[in-house]
Amino acid sequence: MTKNPTILAWVKEMTELMTPDNIVWIDGSKQQLDALRAEACQSGEIIKLNEEKLPGCYLHRTAENDVARVEDRTFICTPTKEMAGPTNNWKDPAEAYEMLYSIARGRYAGRTMYVIPYSMGPIGSPLAKVGIELTDSIYVVLNMEIMTRMGKAVLDTFGDESNDWVRGLHAKCDIDGEKRYICHFPQDNTIISVNSGYGGNVLLGKKCFALRIASYQGWKEEWMAEHMLILGIEKPDGDVKYVCAAFPSACGKTNLAMLIPPEGYQNAGYKVWCVGDDISWLRQGEDGRLWAINPENGFFGVAPGTNVKSNPNALASTMSDTIFTNVVHNLDDNTVWWEGLDKNPPTNALDWKGNPWNGKESDQKGAHPNSRFTAPARNCPCLSSKFDATEGVPISAIVFGGRRAKTAPLVYQSFDWNNGVFVGSIMASETTAAAAGAVGVVRRDPMAMLPFCGYNMGDYWQHWFNMGEKLGDKAPKIFNVNWFRTDDEGHFVWPGFGDNMRVLDWIIRRCEGAVEANETAIGYVPNPADINLDGIDFTEAQLADILDVSKDLWEAEIDGINQFYGRFGDKLPAALKAQFDAFKAKLG
Ligand code: GTP
Ligand code: SPV
Ligand code: MN
What we know:
The chain is of the alpha+beta class. The protein has 3 domains: about 5-50 and about 70-220, Phosphoenolpyruvate Carboxykinase, domain 1, CATH 3.40.449; about 225-300 and about 385-585, Phosphoenolpyruvate Carboxykinase, domain 3 (Alpha-Beta Complex); about 300-380, Phosphoenolpyruvate Carboxykinase, domain 2. The strands form 6 sheets. Strands 1, 4, 5, 6, 7, 8, 9, 10 and 11 form a 9-stranded mixed β-sheet that branches. Strands 12, 13, 14, 15, 16, 17, 25, 26 and 29 form a 9-stranded mixed β-sheet that branches. Helix 3 links the parallel strand 4 and strand 5. Helix 12 crosses helix 17. The longest helix is centred in the middle third of the chain and has 17 residues, at about 205-220. Guanosine-5'-triphosphate binds next to helix 9 and strand 18.
């Protein structure tokens, strides 16, 4: 399928290492994929769902010990530990290769090696990049087909000259949690993943390439790879403003990206368009502005909580050609279910582990909290007409956010770009089920990139400052949001979901200089009267409450920020320290 000597040489080397019985190059044809689906159904790897209700859809169950990303087993393998920085696990590259090869050697024996050429970003876009993933999992092939542009067309466009492509080796081995490693070699454009079959650990185009390797590439090549959704807000006059937003895993990116505006906004002629729900690649355009593409081609979304009210567009996206992972299998009509889909759980069903489950009687959850759907972007009813645009879309605002029961107000705007970098750097959020480990613990997660930055985060922050300098007065405005403030009983105060449009509206008006705001120590906070509350049962007093900036709570952050920054030693950018000092002074 290719004559590119660098690709052929690596595939040959890996073939000798892994000793597969067969080699199949994925050309992306329907015929080839249909045959693979049939084979995976036959082996039980996937289950064909009700063709009338869910055409082209399948169910897959991972091993019980393999249901989320494993941050403690994820490594950045750079020549020195300092290059990976204090927030990454590090291994010496030579030692890592030796360890990984000893785990993986010969492990394709008796199996087929699938060679998947894929493009992150529209094929041939100047912002796109190519990868090759080797895998012994048909589930991975079928997911990559949804999540990326893949197959022969990628190699045809890539040609025979370039060596600028990312090598990805995945082997299921024994799904042994003790020997599970997700390793990145930024200097070699290489990713190796062993002993997992779960999403973010094995769909190597996603977090491994499009964030960990790409963030390093972006640093070297003056662009940015970020854990950000991209959406377009169309105003009644037809003008569309694009916003990127970085929230940690399972903190609302997919939901915001596919938001349906409240009725009042719809009647006035507002629309929201989805460009991406998880990852943005951003580059300065010829006009000096920051432009973004979504490198992905599908959505690997959190299933629980997705329903006709919370996210009808996401639900619609899963109605055909979708792979469901670790959800409930409804045996009555061969469909799927998850907590929060509706109030009518199936009674004759299998839970995510494949055990008999009666949703009316069981006190156990049927779907895993990190169960997911893999749905093609083309299915999304609000997909932006710019989804395939090779130049991307121009970004007006960047929004950071996380899960904070207290402290962070519903929304605030940074004083300027550099202050926005500070705002992103001190982000903190309660952990979720998207990664193995405790849930609900507040941790620092700068720019929602803590688990995804492929180099020293001190250098990463400096890169943000440098980008801001390049962008000058064309830089997007930077905001922070928090949908997750709780009352004394622990209930979310803000209705969220579609009503987040009210906050986006304020953000856009701020970008246009159309509305005043209150200056506080942390940034500009809205006057409650400037957030449109028409049509919801939510008072200005309630709003004032979640817009409150408490001096005590923010003072309580200082120690944590100090400690966190202290870990970076002299890698902490001077500009960030200056921002921190200014913040403390303003807080008084
Ligand atoms: P990843 O795919 O892991 O990166 O997650 P994500 O950031 O795309 O999160 P997603 O949109 O899938 O939302 C995760 C969870 O947050 C779901 O259970 C949602 O129901 C919930 N959620 C999303 N938006 C809101 C909101 O505005 N308010 C509240 N209270 N919950 C929300
Ligand atoms: C996340 O955890 O941020 C995800 C899911 O988007 S995974 O692909 O597993 O990383
Ligand atoms: Mn994500």
